[in-house]
Design goal:
2 copies of one chain form a homodimer. The first copy, chain A, contains 7 helices and 3 strands. Helix content of chain A is 56%, strand content 11%. The interface between A and B is medium-sized, with 27 and 26 residues. Chain B binds a DNA duplex through helix 3.
Chain lengths: 151, 151
DNA sequence: ATATCAAAGGTCAGTAATAGTCAAAGTGTA
DNA sequence: TACACTTTGACTATTACTGACCTTTGATAT
C-alpha cells in the first residue's frame, strides 16, 4: 500500500474517533508520513472529494488547519447519487431537473432549492463567459449539495 | 486557538455583559494576553470591522480607551445595505465579514449563511482563475442576498 | 496662554507560520 | 510500451505576530 493510502486511512481513523470530523495540520501530517506537504493536498483531492461525501475547510497562517467532515449520506442517497452523476460540466436545464427531482423527493426544502438555483443561475454567473459557465456551475452545484448534508 | 482568537472572544464576552458595547484599554489587554499592543489593533481590524457590524471609537493620551459597539439594523435594511455596498468585486474575507454580520443580526439563519459561504468559497469557484474569482463572487453573493429577501 | 511632558493609542512594514497550486518526474501495471 | 496514479518541490497566498516609529490628548510648569 502506498503512502497516499496510508495517509488516507490515518485520516479516516481520526475521523472515526472524533465522530465524523478530522482536524489536521498539513505540516504535521507530512512529517509523520515523511512526505512533502503537498502530498496531503493530493490525498485530500483524490480521496476526500465531494463525490466521496466529504467537506473540506482550511485556514492558512499561524494556527492554520485542514478540517475534513464526513457527510451523513445514508438517508440522503439521492443527493450523493446526484453529486456523482454530475461530471465536470453542468448545464442549467439539467441542473434544474436534478433540483426538481430532489425537491420532489424531499431531499431538501424549497428555500434551499431556490438558493441553489440562484447560485448557479445565468444571472449570478453572468461575469463568466457562456462557454465556461457550465464548468463553474458543476463545481458550485456539487459543493452546495454536499454542504446541505452537513450538520 | 491562537492569541488573536482568544482576544476576540474576550472582547465579545465583555460586549455581551455590557449589553452591546465594550470599552477597553489597549495596554491592559496587551498585558493580559502577553502580546504587543499593536496586536490589539490587528484583532480589531480583522474581526471588528464595519463589515462585521461594529463601530470602533478611540481616544489617545491619558485616560485613553478603545470602544467597540455592535451596530443594530433591521434585517431587511442590513441585507439591502450590504447588497448596495458590494461593488463589482468581492474578496472572500470581506464576504465572510458581511455574512457574519448578517447572521449576528438574524437577517438569515445559520443554514443559509453556510450555503452562501459555500457557494462563494474558493473551492466552489476553483475552476475560475484567481484574478477573476472576486468578480464572480460579487455577482453570486448579491444574487443570493436578494434572493433571500423574496419570501 | 504657551511650552513641555507623559501617557495613551495608531501605522506600517517586516518576519514567521501555515496552507495551496501546478507541472515535472517517478512508479507500477495491464 | 502506454497509461494512470503517485510523489516531489519550487513558487505562491494567507494569517498571525512583532517592533520601531508616529500622533493625539491631558496635565503641569512657567
Amino acid at each position: 500500500m502506498g503512502t497516499s493510502d496510508l495517509i488516507a486511512s490515518f485520516i479516516l481513523d481520526i475521523m472515526e474517533d472524533a465522530g465524523g470530523t478530522a482536524e489536521l495540520s498539513r505540516q504535521n501530517l507530512a512529517e509523520r508520513f515523511s512526505c512533502v506537504p503537498s502530498q496531503i493536498n493530493y490525498v485530500i483531492s483524490t480521496r476526500f472529494s465531494p463525490e466521496h461525501g466529504y467537506i473540506v475547510e482550511s485556514r492558512r497562517g499561524g494556527g492554520g488547519f485542514i478540517r475534513i467532515t464526513r457527510v451523513q449520506a445514508s438517508p440522503q442517497r439521492l443527493i450523493m447519487h446526484t453529486v456523482n452523476s454530475v461530471g465536470a460540466s453542468l448545464d442549467l436545464r439539467t441542473a434544474a431537473a436534478f433540483v426538481s427531482n430532489m425537491l420532489g423527493s424531499d431531499a431538501f426544502d424549497l428555500k434551499t432549492a431556490k438558493l441553489i438555483m440562484t447560485a448557479i443561475s445565468d444571472r449570478a454567473l453572468s461575469p463568466i463567459s457562456p462557454e465556461h459557465r457550465d464548468i463553474v456551475r458543476a463545481s458550485i452545484f456539487k459543493q452546495l449539495l454536499v454542504s446541505t448534508l452537513a450538520e
